[in-house]
From TrEMBL, chain A:
InterPro entries: P-loop_NTPase, Rab_GTPases_membrane_traffic, Small_GTP-bd, Small_GTPase. Belongs to the small GTPase superfamily. Rab family. PANTHER family: DRAB11-RELATED. It comes from Prorocentrum cordatum. It holds the Pfam family Ras. Residues 189-200 have a biased composition (Polar residues). This is Ras-related protein Rab-4. Residues 189-215 are annotated as: Disordered.
Automatic annotation (TrEMBL), chain B:
This is Rab-GAP TBC domain-containing protein. SUPFAM superfamilies: Ypt/Rab-GAP domain of gyp1p (SSF47923). Residues 34-101, 414-423, 430-457 have a biased composition (Low complexity). Residues 29-141, 414-469, 576-620 are annotated as: Disordered. Residues 102-117, 127-141, 586-599 have a biased composition (Basic residues). It holds the Pfam family RabGAP-TBC. Residues 105-294 form the Rab-GAP TBC domain. InterPro entries: Rab-GAP-TBC_dom, Rab-GAP_TBC_sf, Rab_GAP_TBC_domain.
Length: 215, 636
């Protein structure tokens, strides 16, 4: 019981959303990140799926609460309501599918308008193990990301390459923003909360949060 | 944010009591024989509906039949799957150690009892612990195993794909939506034959009045989430059900095994009410674990979005139909009312929000007419941005031309068409003998009494002409005044919207009445005019304001909104509706007879067209002749 409590403690809770075209590999990416395994024969998402994991970034425990949305165009009006308060957004496209890359702009616009204005956004080119079928080059995608002032990484949910890096990278950016005072972690709307709220009377969380303030 | 205690909900108490006493399907059942009286099985398909229940009935009896080999008497759920022995101490539900121990003890006997063909795979003796556990779970609840296995055997991906493709072709407004494959899969399993599955899916969607669950914008789904949320909030809960409604509603409950089939039974029998009840019961089932803390969203997520494991079907259904769950005040009509309101709320918020307006634009336009509200029209005007503005007739003309072309196609197909009037939805009268020969076989019966339509007549260019035609339409709607007789003065509804001959008021007022936004007498209106199958607020029987349509109801069932949207003809749509068990919509619809004293209803004398046009309607047109005469007498 004690160990469970220990495990449950975290300093911040970040809400991430994963968006992108259908079939880009969003659910597999999430599954690979949470379970470190590739999900064979995964069925498409209806509405939204959840996952959460605690990672260590910059000496802090950060709980990521990841919402994996349905990618089909039809669900867009429903998934819009899931964006609210997301601190980070992962826009996933499929490097073997040019269309999914072309829709990147739409997703970016959605994320910027519906989540917070200062949401940290990363573009993820998935399926980078299928090099022979590549339709989007690394260079052009990274250039596009630079132009739009977002992060960029290529991953493979099948092999697990770069999956963890994506989440850590975004979490680090958000953490930096918190420490610079750009995001107030105590506001619920920001999509990040401090762990002390949740843990309640536990002194650990309090101590952690006070450490944040002194920075 | 209100935080509800779980135990506050009366439903929770009922469920807790059930869980204490009812036989759980796992080996943890406490007393095999003791069953509370309310867990008795609901009849799967009540026989109250007559012949119109073909597809659902087969859906309901299909799995029963297939499973009857195992338990001929009452289905597998009426007895605990694994009767507890006297020696084994009953362990708590969810106690893994106890389960494993008990099951291990009984495994040998079970094997001996069951016929060899039932045992599809032996339990893996070696291998990874996870797989073994999974196999063990399947063994413990064989119906789950059988459904999944059956599906794998019966339903190859190609088969499912072809079914879905045919459904999408028949329902262009829905197309393919993720989650329809679940419906299709279950129907393939249950019906067996593929050719009926698309029709059954269409019927199911129509039964739930849930076309807008799947169509662009998913307005109805969001509206239903609102309704569900209100229902939860009335029970001191605060939770955003939009997280779970896609999973529960779109695929009609992502629960597993026997419980799923039972839930479908209930939905087929009771329609949308059952869907809501089961949704609430699924919330209630998770009650004990103190959910519903708005900040602990991940807890909620873990509770709701993990696959709903082995839900005990008896518990689920008994909880769903327990009287404390929904309360006595909420029945089908109340639900429909709430859904209608929520839908109009959603659509108005869509058109108001800056991002949502863009999103909803495509979804909105077909509904502009049905909702008929001023702000929607204004929104349309703004969208166009031009000085000309949105004209009400524009869309109706578009629809009219669409129908025209459709009818022409159909007429060409039947190849025996003499005049376009023959196929004009049966509302027009031709000379009887000639028309009988000329009428296409599929056309609805014609009715005597109105003038023949000019062949090749097109819809008029502007919205003006149809109400300028003398006598057939009334310029100003006086319905508001009639609805509230206390109000004196000129008619307050100055709407220029189309006149519904059947309802005796303008379409805007029809929509207002149907949505209950105005007038204390909407209830009576609702009794006569059920909302149409697509869930939109339109009133059935409304005439589209294209010219050439008779202003009087002809007695034939008109094309409803759903019919328009699905591209069906009225007859096809009516046939589909007749297959529905809900006869209230399908058959009991009678166009209202016009009141006898109102001479405005009488067909106009066959006057030359020039004369008819010259008769410019005044605001008093909708007073009857007697009324006018009396007034004149009084004045003199």
């Amino acid at each position: 019981m004690a160990s469970e409590k220990e495990k449950d403690q975290y300093d911040y809770l970040f809400k991430f959303i994963i968006i992108g075209d259908a079939g880009a590999g969003k659910s597999c990416l999430l599954h690979q990140f949470i379970e470190n395994r590739y999900k064979k024969g995964s069925s498409h998402t209806i509405g939204v799926e959840f996952g959460s994991k605690i990672i260590h970034v910059g000496g802090r425990n950060i709980k990521l609460q990841i919402w994996d949305t349905a990618g089909q165009e039809r669900y867009r009006s429903v998934t819009r309501s899931y964006y609210r308060g997301a601190a980070g957004a992962l826009i996933v496209y499929d490097i073997t599918n040019r269309d999914s890359y072309n829709h990147l702009v739409n997703w970016l616009q959605d994320a910027r308008t519906l989540a917070r204005a200062d949401t940290s956004i990363i573009t993820v080119g998935n399926k980078c193990d299928m090099k022979d079928k590549r339709a989007v080059t690394f260079l052009e995608a990274s250039r596009c990301a630079q132009e739009n002032d977002i992060l960029f990484l290529e991953t493979s949910a099948l092999t697990g390459e770069g999956v963890e890096d994506v989440f850590i990278k975004v979490a680090r950016v958000i953490l930096n923003k918190i420490e610079d005072g750009l995001i107030d972690p105590n506001t619920m709307v920001s999509g990040t909360h401090t762990g002390s709220q949740r843990i309640g009377s536990d002194s650990g969380g309090e101590a952690m949060s006070s450490k944040t303030c002194s920075c | 944010v209100r935080q509800g205690r779980v135990s506050d909900w009366p439903g929770a108490r009922a469920v807790a009591a059930l869980q204490r006493t009812a036989a759980w399907p796992s080996c943890c059942s406490a007393a095999a024989g003791a069953r509370p009286p309310w867990t008795t099985r609901r009849p799967s398909w009540p026989a109250r509906r007559g012949s119109g229940s073909r597809p659902p009935r087969s859906a309901a009896t299909g799995p029963r039949g297939s499973r009857s080999a195992r338990s001929p008497s009452g289905g597998p759920s009426t007895r605990p799957l694994r009767p507890a022995t006297g020696t084994a101490p009953p362990c708590a539900p969810g106690c893994a150690a106890g389960c494993r121990r008990n099951c291990g003890r009984r495994r040998g006997r079970r094997r001996r009892r069951r016929p060899a063909r039932r045992r599809e795979e032996p339990l893996p003796q070696r291998g990874r612990a996870r797989e073994r556990r999974q196999a063990h779970r399947h063994r413990r609840t064989p119906h789950i195993r059988s459904l999944a296995g059956e599906f794998k055997d019966a339903c190859s991906a190609d088969r499912l794909r072809s079914v879905l493709r045919r459904f999408a072709a028949a329902n262009a407004d829905i197309g393919y939506v993720q989650s329809l494959n679940f419906l299709a899969g279950i129907l393939v399993l249950v019906l067996g034959a593929d050719e009926h599955v698309p029709a059954a899916m269409g019927a199911l969607v129509a039964l739930l009045r849930a076309r807008q669950w799947y169509a662009e914008g998913m307005e109805q789904l969001r509206a239903d989430a609102l309704v569900l949320r209100d229902l939860l909030q009335e029970r001191t809960h605060d939770f955003e059900p939009l997280l779970v409604t896609p999973k529960w509603f779109l695929s009609l409950f992502s629960i597993r095994g026997e419980a799923l089939l039972r839930a479908w039974d209930a939905v087929l029998a009771d329609g949308i009410e059952a869907a809501f009840r089961i949704g609430l019961a699924l919330f209630a089932r998770r009650e004990e674990e103190t959910i519903v803390r708005a900040d602990a969203i991940d807890d909620i997520a873990a509770l709701f979005l993990s696959p709903q494991g082995e839900v005990p079907p008896d518990v689920l259904l008994a909880a769903a139909y327990h009287k404390s769950l929904l309360g006595s005040g909420i029945d089908k009509s109340e639900l429909e009312k709430r859904r209608c309101r929520a839908l109009s709320k959603i659509s108005s918020s869509d058109s108001n929000s800056p991002g949502g307006g863009l999103m909803a634009k495509r979804a909105m336009v077909p509904y502009l007419f049905a909702r008929g509200t001023r702000d929607l029209m204004d929104a349309g005007r703004k969208e166009r941005g031009g000085s000309e503005g949105y004209k009400f007739g524009d869309m109706s003309r578009g629809i009219a031309s669409r129908v025209e072309s459709k009818l022409k196609e159909r007429a060409a197909a039947t190849a025996s068409v003499a005049s376009p009037a023959a196929s004009h939805r049966g509302c027009r009268q031709r000379s009887a003998a000639a028309s009988a020969a000329a009428r296409p076989a599929s056309g609805p019966p014609a009715r005597a009494g109105s003038a023949p339509r000019r062949p090749g007549a097109r819809a008029p260019p502007g919205p003006r002409r149809w109400w300028a035609r003398g006598g057939t339409a009334i310029a100003r709607c006086g319905s508001q005044r009639r609805a509230s007789p206390r109000r004196a003065g000129p008619p307050s509804c100055a709407s220029r919207s189309a006149w519904c001959g059947a309802a005796g008021r303008c379409l805007e007022c029809c929509a207002k009445r149907a949505t209950g936004t105005s007038g204390p007498r909407w209830r009576t209106a609702r009794k006569r005019w059920a909302p149409c199958a697509c869930g939109s607020a339109t009133t059935r029987g409304c005439w589209w304001p294209a010219s050439g349509r008779p202003a009087r109801p002809c007695g034939a069932r008109t094309l409803s909104q759903a019919g328009w949207r699905s591209g069906l003809t009225d007859r096809e749509f009516a046939a589909q509706m007749e297959d529905m068990p809900d006869r209230r919509v399908g058959r009991s619809h009678r166009p209202r007879r016009p009141p006898r004293h109102r001479s405005a209803w009488a067909p106009p004398p066959p006057a030359p067209r020039g004369v008819a046009r010259a008769r410019v309607p005044t605001p008093n047109t909708n007073r009857c002749i007697r009324h006018v005469r009396r007034a004149a007498l009084r004045r003199s």
